Structure formats: C-alpha cells, structure tokens
Amino acid sequence: MPDDFEQMWRDLAPVGRSASSGGYNRSPWDSAEVELRDWFVEACAVRGLTVETDGVGNQVAWWEGADPQAPGVLTGSHLDSVLEGGAYDGPLGVLSALAALDVLRARGVEPARPIGIGVFVEEEGSRFGRACLGSRLATGATTWDAARELRDRDGVFLPDAIDSAGLDPARGLMDLGRVGTFVELHVEQGRDLVDRGVAVGLASEIWPHGRWRFDFAGQANHAGTTRMEDRRDPMLTYAMTVLAANKQARLATQRATFGRIAVEPNGTNAVPSLVTAWLDARASSDDALATLVGEIERQAADRAGRDGTTLAVTAESVSGSVAFDADLAARLAGVGDWPVIATQAGHDAGILSGAGIPTAMVFVRNPTGVSHSPEEHAETADCLAGVEALADVLAELTADPA
C-alpha cells in the first residue's frame, strides 16, 4: 500500500503546479482539474470501480459490498485548489480513500454495505465565488437556477465553463439518496494536531464562516491635480475597513481577512472610482460571526460618510455552524483513540451534514500549520497513518448492514 499511495501522489504532483512558485492552480472545469478527474476515473477502473459523473462534474464510484441496497458509506473529498494553493488540500482525501479501499481488500474485508469514493467539484469557490458549490448543488443547498447566473473573474458564466469541460447539467446531479454516512479525510489546516503531538484526529465542528463583497464607490480623478481635501477616494475607505476588520477580529479572537480586491479604473495616476473587496470572516458561533461582520460594516459605513464615498455590502456565500454527529464522532474516536478537534475551515462534509447526512471528518497532521499555500505539507508517514485510520473507520461503519 505505501508504494501505491506514493505512486498516486507522484502521478498527481505535476498537475496544475506552477514551475516558478510551486503553488497549485487547479481551477474547476479548466484543463488541470479536468485532467485530475480523468485520473480519478482511471484510478477507479484499476480497482474495478465504475465512476458516475454528474452534469456539473461531481463524481462517485461504489464498491457495492454484500448488500448493495443498504445505506452506503461515502468518503472522498475534492481535487480543485485555491489560487497558488497547496498540494494536500482536497487531493489527500481522494488519494487516501482509494488507498483505504486497497487496505480493506488486502485485509480481506468484504463490506456489508456499499463504500463510495467521491469527488465534489468547486469546493474552494476559487473560480465562481461559491465555496462547496458541487456539494451544495448535489444536496439542494444551492439551486441550479441560482448557480447558473454565477460568473468568474473573466466574465465566463458557470454554464459555459461547465459546457467547455464536456459536461451538461441537464444530465442531472449526484444522487445522494443511497448515502447513509459521509466521512471526509483532510489535511489539517492549522496546528492543533502538531501541538498535541499526534498524527490523526477527528472533527467535532466547523466554525460558521462566509464571504461578503464590499463595494466602495467614489469619484475618479487626476492623481496630480486633485487636492487631497477634494478627493472622494474609495481606497481610503477600503484601507480603513481592512484595519477595522483586523482589530475587531483580534479583539473577539475570531477571524477576518480581506484577501481579494479589484480596483477601477486601476490606473497608477488616477484616484479610483470603485474598490471592490471580499471579506472572509469566521467565528466560533453564528452570533459571534454576525456581530463581527456587523461591526466591520458599521465602521466601514461610518468612514465612507467621512470620505464622501458610498458602501454596499453583499453576502455572497455564508455557511452556518456545523456540529458533526456526536454519536458518530464518539463511535469513531473509540476505533483509534483519536482526539476530537474543531476546525475553522469549510468543507463539503459541512454541506452534507447540513443536509441531514451523519458526517465525520478525519484530519492528518500538517507540520507547518500552513494551508492554502505552497508551504502546506503532510509527512508521508502521517499520510499513511491517515489511510490506515480511514480504513479502520470504513471497516467499522460497514461491518453491519443494519
């Protein structure tokens, strides 16, 4: 099994990787992500599994087990990345699912219920701004009528991107009706396991989080001839808002990040007319998140009034708090005596949990604690420990068809 896992990792390592930065750009429905989905089909075929691909690119393959009619256990993750992302966020869960199936077969396990290996598309929301879009569509959390209006940074509509990848939403979406439980393995995006000195953990909850678009509008003008006191500069309002967000998040021990910005007309010698910025905010409770975002918006609006600019705030993608199935987590914690920890990162597991599917997550230690960056990492020994842990979990969950 180590050779199989490491060979799979070597196969995926070059796909979508920047030669200059070492970061990954596996944008949904673009060539690198399509290549990875083709790789998944081939990896499943080697194992005698047939992949079903839905109309938007979600994929699943089933090992039917002794009773194909019993509720199945689905595992897997995603293959897309953030811009200049790391290698492990998403693909580790898919590779580990395939390797765990190999472990179970090597052990001579015949599951009493089906085991599915799945890949959800556009988990990161890096292209169309909706995190976990594939799983949201599959669960009905987002409708196709709403999603079809989404556009990427280049103005490409979602249906056109999907069509360019040879897919057709009219073929329908992934059927989750046969999924009785979902287990997602993921690299940890933080340092909890590092601090505990353990390789593997389970998730207790996902913090509520979301993305808000802030549109700061002002007046374009000449950078040289316009006196400072005569300006209506939205960049000033934006700059103050960034500082306010940082301060409010620190005071509340929560999270607030402005990581993306667009400026018009974007000229060196022009006062901008419009600054559009995206806030990513996360907090330990729904109320704390609402308070944090509300305070940031209040301070931004106050500053806009003093700067002679205007502010419009749009919630683009908001996910409430997720408490994973406590009974399931307790059951699985007993399998390997793993710690149960919270995560501040969003995952497809949170969407399936919100749809009423009992859900658990397995985390693999990240020694750098860094994620969404080329520095994201997991040691091979820890990855293999994660594979064994996932195999143990799947064996436990499929031992009895009842």
UniProtKB/TrEMBL annotation:
Keywords (alphabetical) are: Hydrolase, Metal-binding, Zinc
What are its cofactors? Answer: Zn(2+)
Which GO molecular-function terms appear in the entry? hydrolase activity, acting on carbon-nitrogen (but not peptide) bonds, in linear amidines; metal ion binding; N-carbamoyl-L-amino-acid hydrolase activity
Q: Where along the chain is allantoate bound?
A: R211, N269, R282
Matching entries from SUPFAM superfamilies are given as: Bacterial exopeptidase dimerisation domain, Zn-dependent exopeptidases
Domain of life, per UniProt, equals Bacteria
Q: Write down the Gene3D superfamilies for this protein, in alphabetical order.
A: 3.30.70.360, Zn peptidases (3.40.630.10)
- Positions bound to Zn(2+) 1: H78, D89, H186
Q: Which Enzyme Commission numbers does its entry carry? A: 3.5.1.87
Asked if the Swiss-Prot or TrEMBL record annotates the protein with the keyword Zinc, the reply is yes
Cofactor binding summary note: Binds 2 Zn(2+) ions per subunit.
**Residues forming coiled coils:** none
Q: Which Pfam families match?
A: Peptidase_M20
This protein's record includes keyword tRNA processing: no
Q: Which family does it belong to?
A: Belongs to the peptidase M20 family.
Listed name of the protein: N-carbamoyl-L-amino-acid hydrolase
